[in-house]
TrEMBL record:
Domain of life: Bacteria
Organism this protein belongs to: Eubacterium plexicaudatum ASF492
UniProt-recorded name of the protein: Uncharacterized protein
Amino acid sequence: MKLGDIYRHKNKNSIIQIDSFATPMGQSVDNSSFTIVFKQIERHNQYEIGSCSSNNGYGSQEEIEKEYKLLIPQEKLSEYQDWNEIFELLN
């Protein structure tokens, strides 16, 4: 799981993007018990696509992968011109 990865909800037509990783203050980054923060990407129409920070979510990799599956790895994002192309993958 990497920054920028895009995941699709297994039961709904919704997507998230991995936004950041967090650890409690004072813990080493090497500690594997970090929290993954993601943002919900919403499509209102072909011109209005974005996210609202109040809809951000978080969890462990295991928790996220129970509900979501990888749609586009970060390395392949450059193959898409815009979010509309990514949302077409949900159909």
